[in-house]
Structure of Release factor glutamine methyltransferase:
Amino acid sequence: MTNREILENATKRLDKAGIAEAGNDAWLLFSEAFGMTRTDYLIDKNAECNAGHIPFFDSCIEKRLAHIPVQYILGKAYFMGYEFEVNNNVLIPRFDTEVLVSEVLKYTQDDFKILDMCTGSGCIAISLSLLSGAEVTGVDISEKALAVADYNKVINKADKVTFVKSNMFENIDGAFNLIVSNPPYIPTKDIFELEHEVKNEEPMLALNGHDDGLFFYRILAEESAKYLRHNGGIFMEIGYNQAEDVRNLLIKNNFTDISVIKDLAGLDRVVCGWRK
């Protein structure tokens, strides 16, 4: 069987099973299993495939047919140009969240202290620190998530990042220039309408924003001022329809200069505000 044949067969199987982006997913798994780049494939697509790699590739395809996300199958995801380990104890880093990091970087200096609330895999905290030189503290309630974050800190050599187990601000001391968060924000009732890969594979703890999806935003808006330095700011990723509600929470808690940033699809993605 040639490289082209095995890739095309896998793509057809995924497509027939209704897997979104079947071609892309098949390629990612093929590339990992056979150790081939796009250039390698174009040169050798009609060559006989390495039979020794077929069992691993087949097992990867079977997992994808079972709706396990590609990132969990491969055990890694890419965010802001860095590689992060991921498993089903952490949310898979999303491209949309890069909007949050990019916005925070506009206001960050290398002597800043930043708090990343609900850090998960640590991708936000680590990316912010590596790209700005700032000292970042990542916080999560999940020990299993923090184990992943700690590993990602090591593999990315993020020496200025520290991870802390805490239920939101419960175990947090000190003052920060900026607070950033991508909290769970999906209303409980909406979770069951999500695609299988999300609702059945990603951690519920990282998805569930409780009744109206605003549970964690209320805590952030009400408590963050105690941990912000003068002229400190808060940056939060939001769901597409939550901008006005989150904005009002910040106004209610005396934040000023509040702004909403859209993602590349034109959807509201980040709300930020400042304490003078």
Q: What stands out?
A: The chain has two domains: 3-66, 88-275. Residues 88-275 form a domain with the Rossmann fold fold (CATH 3.40.50.150).
